[in-house]
Q: What sequence folds into this?
DNA sequence: TCTGGGGTCCTAGGACCC
DNA sequence: TCTGGGGTCCTAGGACCC
């Protein structure tokens, strides 16, 4: 059996942990630049604020209904996530952290336990230890544990936050209840096609002939169908190094100057290089993209990307920044108002076994230098040491008007309790 | 005026090899 | 007039996830 544990309205719940006065109040967390709603408390959902809602379109509702709005505080959410995962890891030796707020737990060999109770004990321990409410779904396959989790959450009043699918009756009842577009692994495109052929529920999907599923949804769809029928096709995934690493941002305003973009692009490359070093990889290729604001049809549109193959594998901030700026020179055009850019590094090789090039190689001194930089930044705070090509004047700043304190990761932000 | 960011996997088809 | 068989690798595009 697998358990799928996920945190309820995770980002909103994190904000609530340190603001208990917000219990029962509507909360919305915004994306970078305070752009879109990326998390909502149940109360905010009830007000009809959809996922991804542009903040400016809902300002009036926020105001009128007294919604508490927060800028995304990833330092806080990342730390709270660690705490939750730590607690969960005490319930099984075998666990896969699936996302910032979700984990699959293997319950192999736990058959002697009352699994419903076991799920409830997870809820109790995690909420007590971290303040974050969770839901637990338990079933014989990963896909079914996702279904069970939905039920646990949706009917929390009855389930207490934990639900087990351990019989065919329960499985079929659950699948008949679940709309096909809500199945894990069925997105918009597949959902539409399925609805078109009269498949409305997860159960209908399991009744489709395998050839149809194979033809229209490939082996991924077939695997999913079997999982929903109760035949396990997916194991716990072991953590692997990333195959691509990206740093991309929308800008707070439109950029028209090469110099402005250059500073940002350089910073994105530096950020990628830090992530590369963290997983001890070098990259062999780098992609850069820039584009104007797609939502503005009154402005001239321009969008391009370019991939450059590097002459040698590297994770040096200096070298990657150079390559990114070279790439920018190739695709930058005057006369456009740029709104977003990003650097994506690809085609990794491990640091230990680099293929050297006869004619040009990564500067051997950079390894030591980067180590020193990483160490300083780790101790003194991010971005203490930067490249001169980066935005030294700090002319840009992400819009974050409603940022909460970093309660759990910054000494200055620790709460004081008056007794 | 204001609209996020970061990932994965699979497949078909073209280019190439012997 | 007749014109094989069996592979691999790469890439773009499509689908999905949180």
A:
């Amino acid at each position: 059996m697998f358990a799928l544990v996920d945190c309820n309205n995770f980002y909103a719940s994190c904000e609530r942990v340190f603001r208990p006065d917000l219990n029962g109040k509507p909360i919305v967390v915004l994306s970078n630049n305070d752009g879109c709603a990326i998390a909502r408390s149940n109360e905010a959902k009830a007000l009809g604020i959809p996922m991804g809602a542009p903040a400016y379109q809902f300002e009036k509702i926020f105001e009128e209904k007294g919604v508490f709005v927060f800028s995304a505080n990833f330092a806080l959410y990342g730390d709270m996530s660690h705490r939750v995962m730590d607690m969960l890891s005490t319930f099984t030796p075998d666990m896969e952290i699936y996302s910032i707020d979700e984990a699959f737990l293997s319950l192999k060999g736990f058959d002697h336990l009352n699994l419903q109770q076991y799920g409830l004990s997870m809820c109790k321990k995690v909420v007590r230890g971290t303040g974050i409410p969770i839901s637990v779904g338990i079933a014989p396959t990963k896909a079914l544990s996702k279904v069970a989790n939905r039920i646990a959450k949706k009917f929390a009043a009855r389930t207490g936050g934990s639900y087990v699918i351990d019989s065919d009756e329960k499985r079929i009842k659950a699948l008949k209840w679940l709309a096909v577009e809500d199945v894990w692994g069925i997105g918009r495109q597949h959902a539409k096609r399925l609805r078109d052929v009269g498949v409305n529920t997860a159960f209908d999907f399991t009744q489709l002939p395998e050839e149809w599923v194979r033809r229209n949804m490939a082996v991924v769809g077939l695997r999913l169908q079997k999982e929903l029928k109760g035949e396990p096709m997916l194991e716990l995934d072991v953590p692997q190094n990333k195959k691509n690493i990206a740093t991309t941002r929308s800008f707070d305003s439109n950029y028209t100057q090469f110099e402005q973009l250059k500073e940002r692009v350089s910073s994105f490359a530096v950020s990628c290089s830090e992530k590369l070093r963290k997983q001890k990889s070098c990259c062999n290729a780098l992609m850069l993209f820039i584009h104007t604001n797609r939502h503005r049809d009154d402005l001239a549109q321009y969008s391009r990307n370019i991939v450059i193959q590097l002459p040698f594998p590297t994770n040096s901030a200096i070298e990657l920044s150079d390559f990114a700026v070279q790439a920018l020179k190739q695709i930058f055009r005057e006369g456009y108002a740029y709104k977003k850019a990003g650097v994506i590094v690809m085609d990794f090789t491990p640091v230990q076994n680099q293929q050297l090039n006869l004619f040009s190689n990564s500067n051997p001194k950079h390894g030591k230098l980067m180590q020193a930089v990483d160490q300083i930044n780790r101790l003194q705070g991010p971005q203490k040491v930067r490249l001169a090509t980066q935005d030294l004047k700090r002319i840009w700043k992400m819009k974050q008007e409603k940022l909460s304190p970093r309660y759990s990761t910054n000494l200055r932000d620790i709460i004081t309790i008056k007794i």
Remarks:
- The mean pLDDT of chain A is 93.
